[in-house]
Amino acid sequence: MEILGDALRRGQDPKLEINMSMMGLKHVANRIVGNAMIPSITEDERYRLTAAEMFSGAHAVYFFDQLHTVAEDSITFDLLTAIRIYTRVRQITFLASLMQPSSEVFDLFDRVIILNDGNLVYQGPRQDAIPYFEKLGYRKPKHLSTGEFLQEVTTPDGAAYLQPGFSRLSVEEFVIKYKSSDTYKDVLRVVNSSELVQQLWVQGAPPLGVEFDEYRYHKDDGREAVSFRVSGVREVDGSLVDVSMDHTTGVERGDKVVAFGSSMGPLQYVDTFSSPRRLLDELSSLTTKGTEPVRLQLERRFREATGVPRNQFSKGYVLGLKEEVSLLTKREFNSIWRNKFGLQLRVMQVLTMSFFVGFFLFRVHPAPDQRIMNLFRTGFFVSVINLTMFNVGQLPALMSERNIFYKQKAAHFYRPVSYLLAKFFGNFPFSLCEAIVWSIIVYFLTGMSVADGGWHFFVYFAVVLLTALNGSAMVRFLGFAVPNMDKAGLIIGVFVTLFILFAGFLMPRLQVPKYWVWFYYINPLQWAITALMISEYGSGTYSKLCSEVYKPPPPAPLLPQCAERDNETYGRAFLEAGEFFVSEGWIAVALFMLFAWLVVWNCLTYYALTRIQHKKILRTGKSINEEKKENALAKKIDDVELAVNKLSHTAVPVTLSWHELCYEVMIPVINRPRTILKVVSGWGEPSDMVAILGSDASGKTTLLNSLAGRKIVTERLEGQILVNGYPKDQKSFRHIMGYVDRIDAYTPYLTVRETIAYSAALRLGSSSKQKQAYFVDEVLELTELTYVQNALVSSLVNDITFDREKRLAIATELVSNPSVLFLENPTKGLDSSSANDIVKCLQHISKTGRLVIMTLNYPSQRILSMLTKVQILKGSGETAYFGPVGTNGESIITYFQSIPGAPLCPPNKSVSAYAVDLVAGMPFRKSEKDYAFEYSVSELALKNHVQLQQLRRPGRNGEKIQIRSYGASYYTVLMETIMSVQRQYWRNVNYSWGRMLAFLIMSVILGSVFYKLDRTSTLGLNSMAGSIFISCVLVGMTNAQNAIPQTMQMRAVHLRERAVHQTSILAYNIAYTLAEIPYLMVANLIFCSIFLPMTKIATYSASAFFKFWFISLEFYAAVTFFGAFLAVVSPTPVIASVLVPIVVGIWISTAGLVVPRSMILNTFIWVFWTNPLQWALDGLTSVAFYCVLDKPSCLNSNLNPECETDIKACPQCDCPRMSGTNVFVWRQISNIRSLDYGRIPYDMIALLLFAILFRVLTVLAFKYTRHYRRT
């Protein structure tokens, strides 16, 4: 009530405040949720937020999948405690699936459902589960958690709990037993009842405060039966009257008694009593004379809610459309506004490109000169292209946001149309600001027309705004319609190809083939450029008549479009010569078409939101190899034991000891250090399994990383770590250790065997291939992966259960023959059976003479029994226990219970949970003693101190480790890496073969557009030159964009390999270079084989064809490597995706086609010479249009100069000429573009150097980029 009153006083939503208080989120109420790049709330708080989000609704039933998998036990307990209160107060039903719940967590539930292979083996009261299975002969051992026992009892592992005299039951027999039980009959009674009733469970110690009377009723079969119901409730003095979380609801008069029992035994169901007198005696004895708490199952008719509209729960959504749109728009705006990093990227993007275009065309004064007028046309083209492509960088974020939308859509939070409108309205202010900034900077820096009252600026602004909104809408559609970035890159490439081709810039309207003219008229970019052209050149700035400004040759006219157009303004003449519409009415048509496209994109997005859902569905049944495993189950144990005894590679015996370790981290906000580890000591010997236990933030992961020398700042670590008594030399130690990280980053396109063999080849370099293969077989057998050795690693997610992925991580490290194996929480996310299997596998590994050190969270009794030593840390990073485990953890129990005042270990609690909770000092596990101090003064600590002092003696347990490398030669590393990467590319169909499909599609599109185009006209020649330009830009940009997600994916793999010094950065980059080239060669050959014959480009000789192919290959390789470089140097895919359009936009502007080299300002000429696109266009255009003019049939080494313009002077010359002027096509294009055929070798060398440069930069980025560096 205090929370409610406080919320009302502050004008807050009371329901929201209560929800947040119950979920423990009040202290982070005003923080942004954040993501991987913007960490703002902890995993615990994010976990609570997920629950609070769903509990905000007015639902009657809530489902929670894998409640215990992603959170620590303490987090789950706190969350479930809040949920339990919530269910009691709101009278709702909560159903959750659990893995390895602790006793405290398990006891929070009222009923439990146990499944095995999809079969129901028990459903009933939580308290009755243990007695039920005991009746079947399965007894729970002492100090074994109830959850663990119930999870294993019906599996093959449950045989360990079977009592003498009972036979082991199969799953089918468990099902039969359950269906014959009273509990199941009661479930059927409720389910099949013709009356809608509510089942209640209450519990309390006598006196109960309620009275019962007998009543008779008729069962569904017509028979008369006797039962009891509540006849009176005393409002004072009674445990069932008091408010308690043990009651699902309060007891009311008229409630029917269904079952009753004591807290120590199972419920007795009323229907099972044949004698009413005996039923009365049992109930009376239990409720009035007994001393133990009483449990009752009551039944109550459902009452129709009053004061609630009948259609409230029949409506699809709680809010109306208007309220939804308003609320979601506010959320979208806040999401964008608070994403400062994303905003900075957008600001940087628009400012960079707008200032570049503005200064690149700085103060181009309108003048009667076609070259100047073409620069404005270029400015319009660059503007619409950049504004369309600006939002491509948002694709990764949109795709990551899809899962949130799918979750909230499935829960009916809002309508898809509300979400779509909110996306548009929330993003509109930012698109508006981008359009304003771009328009002001570009329009006035370039000196566009300010005549006629300046309304032309507003036309420019309107076109820019609509173009930006269209680009955003297109990307939004792709974000929800396309499954992944690979396919998105392909589709964007096709869209942009068509948009640019028919934008009216590269190919005039009348040059467009008839079968493509339909797309010209619906192309939004064409209408944008048309509107800008008409607005600019129809303005008063260009109002002079051609007769006033046109001066025919000699010299050459500045306005050739004015020829034969004396009565037209030179602006209108320029439009007509470029085959544009000239009437101002077309501006309105253009704006309408842009708006229509905006509607179309949003309609397509709505379709994608409602009909398409890209969600990975995991298989829950048996994997494709499960039968093989079952058939081999009997043989497996023997094979594993054999593998343990016969591992062909023996490890160097290592005793690792750590002495008084201390570690601090600096807290940036308060600029003060925080102690993570404090005077921690311990040791491990060959064949030991040492587990580091502790609560959250106890420093167990930091201790593990400190011992391994991974992911820590060495300078902040104090104390001493010894290897066989010698100070640990990390450069040597890293070659005898294996580290299994919590993040399992492995190449998805290698098989399990290939992944392990690759690690063996690089880390067992001194062994022969045969010995390596034999050792790989042994490791596969030891880790029980033999039967899936030929499965792809990617299938670990969809086809193989999660524990196989853990085994792969272990096998990959084990195959390096480590003496010490470190593992960070190897059982996280696994059920008890899989967790036991993983630790059993580690036990087999330790028996081979290796030391295994791991962190664990509340290991089960069985897992604890497999360990030899444990180190338990308290929250301050101090040791509360280090020593042996003992049989079933007896050594740990004996130690803690010997401490005066320490509580005893409850029989229902595992030893690890007892010990960790005892020293944790958490809110629900009060610790009144300093167990770190108790340990420091204990006899056990003294004994350990003596042993640690002995371990300080160098050489006592082994020789000094001096290994500087794994032994594999650089040639071996290089060749193995090359073969591994080649396999990855071959199997990565989406990338490697999808790219070929993209080349094929673009070649057909470009070839059909420029098919048999007349190159002897000025417009035709410009269009043909533009075809080469567009092929380079679009294919190159698509390659760069596609390389980003691939490199990002493989970056994580290389990060892991680099951390264990498995491969070198140089070998890695050489391998990926050699893998890219063959696919680029084939893809480009496909492109050239279709595009060149269709356009008659470079078809005059085989030499010309292969020169064109080779130059374009160099360019595509350079751009692909540039994309890979951006992916490596950028912390996130978003940054890389934003940088690509910026760089490509600069390359387009300075390549010498849209702006001739002679018109580029000296300030930017360096960009021209450092632009790989310029070198590619120079070489490709020279190859495409070159013709030998000095041959005898033409100019004859300039002995026949009349042939230059007179066709009759050399009738045998076969070099094409321009129609009208008879100038050679090669002469025309070479003069305009400053081409020189003899410069082609220099173009090839320059492109090769660009490709090499980008690979070198990638190597340097791998090595020195801050976000990539890792110890």
Automatic annotation (TrEMBL):
It comes from the Eukaryota. It is found in: Membrane. It holds the Pfam family ABC2_membrane. One of its GO terms (cellular component) is plasma membrane. It is a multi-pass membrane protein. The chain crosses the membrane at residues 343-362, 374-393, 424-445, 457-482, 488-508, 515-534, 585-609, 993-1011, 1023-1044, 1065-1092, 1104-1127, 1134-1155, 1244-1262. Keywords: Chloroplast, Membrane, Plastid, Transmembrane, Transmembrane helix, Transport. GO terms for molecular function: ABC-type transporter activity; ATP binding; ATP hydrolysis activity. The keyword Transmembrane applies. Its main location: membrane. Residues 661-900 form the ABC transporter domain. This is ABC transporter domain-containing protein. It comes from Ceratopteris richardii (Triangle waterfern).
